[in-house]
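Q&A FORM
Asked by: J.P.
Topic: structure of N-acetyltransferase domain-containing protein

PROVIDED:
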Amino acid sequence: MLPTLHTTRLTLSPFTPADAPLVQRYAGDARVASMAAFIPHPYPDGLAEQWIASHLPDHLARTSTTLAIRERDTGELRGAIGLILTLEKRLGEVGYWVGAPFWNQGICTEAARRIIQYGFDDLALETIRAHHFPHNPASGHVMKKAGMTRIGVIPRCTPKDGQLLDAIQWQILKTDFDTQGE
Ligand SMILES: CC(C)(COP(=O)(O)OP(=O)(O)OC[C@H]1O[C@@H](n2cnc3c(N)ncnc32)[C@H](O)[C@@H]1OP(=O)(O)O)[C@@H](O)C(=O)NCCC(=O)NCCS
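REPLIED BY: S.T.
REPLY: Here is the structure written out as tokens.
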């Protein structure tokens, strides 16, 4: 079973097939797709349904855990957040998007803090990393606000739309996370 997690304002819960039209609209928006390594633009019909159907098998295989970001009060979809897992290294890679109408309201930072806590407390990870493209400083700002440390740039590392783009890498260790709350 995929988990359901709560924060003050948000619920992180499994996607359902009913979310597919909004996933296509929000993730397929060029402002979102251009910042994310694996989101195509235009976003083809049927891809959102396929993506949602992959979440439970991937979670059961312990290769990734992906959750919807929803308003806690209304259940309305705001975005997606997940961890790609390399359990033999006790390593997770966090990734996310938020629908453009809801940007700059602190949603992603709140969701990122919660999934990092889930990764350390429930999945026993030791390290959680994230990376963003140089043209996406907002995502770096989220990583910083979520307690991560910038560890460097891997040049020409991530394919996007036929180009290889630099990846700016961030990470947080469990030991650092444990002491941040003190
Ligand atoms: C990155 C993204 C998830 C952030 O979501 P969000 O809910 O708006 O994030 P938050 O509101 O928690 O934080 C955004 C922060 O970035 C800041 N920010 C916005 N645009 C910025 C810019 N151009 N440069 C620097 N900081 C910027 C905001 O001011 C805010 O910081 P603040 O709270 O200190 O004011 C969202 O912009 C998004 O979905 N982008 C497209 C997809 C994407 O980038 N995914 C991640 C791939 S690595």
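FOLLOW-UP: The longest helix spans residues 107-121.
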